[in-house]
Amino acid sequence: MPKRILQGVVVSDKNDKTVVVRVERRFAHPLMQKTVRRSKKYKAHDAENQFKVGDMVSIEECAPVSKDKRWTVVSNQS
């Protein structure tokens, strides 16, 4: 099964080798049919500490790195 890839914005880089990425999804409300935005935060592994707050990044599923890190940063979209 292919690994999922999500795109989001780095909202925190305070942890060592970890960034917190906010991923936003948009969908139509089932009843009102208005576009709704929902976001979720994921902790992702950043081995070189190269990504900073505000960077647009892609994250990919991986094997668990720690208790709550199951994603790794794969690239930077400027």
Helix content: under 10%
Write down the CATH class.
Mainly Beta
Q: Kindly estimate the percentage of residues that lie in beta strands according to DSSP.
A: over 45%
Please give the CATH architecture. Beta Barrel
Principal-axis shape equals: globular
Task: Give the number of helices.
Answer: 0
Q: What about the largest sheet?
A: 5 strands, mixed, barrel
Structural class category = mainly beta
Instruction: Spell the H/E element sequence.
Output: EEEEE
**End-to-end span in angstroms?**
29 Å
- Radius of gyration, Cα only, in angstroms? 14 Å
* Oligomer class: single chain
Q: CATH homologous superfamily name? A: Nucleic acid-binding proteins
Please provide the count of β strands.
Answer: 5
The average pLDDT value, as a whole number, equals: 95
